[in-house]
Structures are given as C-alpha cells and as structure tokens.
Amino acid sequence: MLKVSCLFVLLCGLLVPSSAQQIPPEVSSQITDALTQGLLDGNFLSLLNAINLEGLLNTILDQVTGLLNILVGPLLGPSDAEIKLQDARLLQLSLEFSPDSKGIDIWIPLELSVYLKLLILEPLTLYVRTDIRVQLQLESDEDGKYRLAFGHCSLLPRAIELQSGNPLSLPVNAVLGTIENALGNFITEDLGAELCPTLNSLVSNLDLQLVNNLISNRKLEAVNLDET
To answer: How many CA atoms lie within 13 A of 71 on its CB side?
Structure first.
C-alpha cells in the first residue's frame, strides 16, 4: 500500500509549457535515443550511488533532533542514522524548443528512492520523481556558423512520497515535512551540482550530424518566431 504523506510539488517552471514549440519527431527521437544511450553507457545512474549524502544527513539531523528530544527523550548521535539513494531509474527523455529564447530544452526525468534510518525512528523509504532540465543555446560565431552551447542545468523535484503500509507514528508525523523539505533542497542544489557536469560532457560529444539537424530546425523555428 502506498500512503502519500505529502506531495512536494514545485509549480513554477516545472511542467512543460503548453506554448513550447515542438521539435520534429524524427529529429527529437534521434537525439533522445543518442542521449539515453550515452547516459546508460556512461553509467549515469551509478553516479547517484557515489554521491556523498553526509551533508544531507547532517542537515536532517540538525533540524529534527531537537523536536525528537522533546517527543521521545534524549537521543544518541549521528552513528545511529543512515541514508542512501537506491533504485534509480531513467524515464523517457524529451526535447522542445524553448518558448522564451532561441534555444532547446532537454528534459530528463528520473525516479529513485531514498532509504532513511533516523535515530530511534523506524526506517523510512521515500520515493522521488525529479526532472533534469538542460537548456541549450543556439549561438553563432564570426563566420556565421551556428553551434549549440550548454546553458543552464537544473533539477526540479516533481514529487516526494513516503511509502508506508502502516499508520505513521507520532514522531515520524512530526518530522516528515522537515525531512521532505531538506530532501527537496538537496535535489535542487547539491544533486544538480553533481550531475550537471556529466550532462555537459555528454551533450558536447553528441554526433555532429544529429546536432546539425537540431540546429537547422532551431534556426527555422527562430526565423518563424521572429516573423510573428
């Protein structure tokens, strides 16, 4: 049974804008297939297991220890706590022309779970869905030749859900919101800093012909936008 204790949703800039210009399917599928294969070949998902979570664990402990001390009495130290990312899964990638600029957005959705053993609390498993948004910018050099430059990269938490088959205890209910907020901040800030350089390298090594096809379609769309 999946009990959703809290749905963590960022409304601003998260969902794909309805006004976004669509890339021709044949071009989009070629790029997403190449990116997906590159992510898998580069063991992108295994990078998650190597990320240091000590800072996240310490943040959670700092924020919840005082409240737990009040509810259940004095607690032991961080040695009684554990956190790890597991079961990461890459979902279907998508591309679109940025509606507000002459660029391209790559959307990379991820699902993963976070196991957390926090002091005297029963172990918790939180399921996370997050989108990685990579923005590519169309640039031209002095000779008028175009290229795609790696722009902004960000992780946007779509949902954080707690799986529990039993009623939650009072201590868990008391600190769950704090845990979810800390996890959301970690995904947005720290996880992005760890994963985005790998994505930059992957995009930079895309097949030149695929990139040229994408540039050609972006240039055509940019002209259409300028004329409207």
So the answer is: 15
DSSP 3-state of 127:
strand
| Strand partners of residue 134 | 106, 153
The whole-model pTM stands at 0.77
Q: Is 119 left (phi over 0), alpha (psi -120 to 50) or beta?
A: left
Which residues lie closer than 8 Å to 18 by C-beta, 6 or more apart? none
Distance (Å, rounded) from C-alpha 32 to C-alpha 35? Answer: 5
Q: How many CA atoms lie within 13 A of 204 on its CB side?
A: 8
Residue for token pair 């992510």: 39
Kindly report, residue by residue over 189-208, the tens digit of the pLDDT: 999 888 998 888 888 777 66
- Give the 3-state DSSP-derived string for 160-202, with helices as H, strands as E and coil as C: EEEECCCCCCHHHHHHHHHHHHHHHHHHHHHHHHHHHHHHHHH
